[in-house]
Predict the 3D structure of the following.
Amino acid sequence: MNILEIKDVTSGYGEVQILWGATMALEPGKLTSLVGANGAGKTTMLRTIMGLLKPWNGSIHFKGEDISKLSAHEKAARGLILVPEGRQLFTDMSVVENLEMGASPPRARPHIDKNFKLVYEMFPRLLERKNQKSGTLSGGEQQMLAVARGIMGEPIILMMDELSLGLAPVLVLDLFEGLGRLKEAGISMLLVEQNVQMALAISDYGYVLSHGKVELQGRPRELINNEHIQAAYLGG
């Protein structure tokens, strides 16, 4: 059974439609990537799943429950957590304080010690800088903190928007290695990522979004070897 199912979803901003009947699904415990060109609708898809945008039509089911009309707060309480593009940290608060804010959903509070241990093992730099204000961290450290704050919410599904944007390759490798740890912990993930090759390399399944619709889907090797993907995203 799929843990998340998005069926024929349309959505947008004001009168501007971005998603045009998009359909996709996530398997439990798997890492699924959503890739595509800028403007394809990837961030809109995440915002709609999370409840920051209401779907105009279609449905979103989480663990069999129709959550299409629930608020972002209600979805977070059920275990859907979004790491947004741009990090959106509390820059005047310390690393620890940001992490504690991430643990605000009631379902996360009993697991706070376990999750502190997990994020510090994944990102030792955060432990070294735990009392430092997040606004003084490097860009890579801030992205680590954004992911760690999401983990503190005790996610069943962790959705991440553009992890590698603006980061040095070595920091991107650190972040992507951390995602492997999350898979081992049984967390289902949906990754929106501009680095198509790297995203597919660590994924169990992938979707290609184009003009608000799912154009292609399949196992990573199938997509990487696809002529369209080669030409459009991998320089082939």
Notes: The longest helix spans residues 169-184.
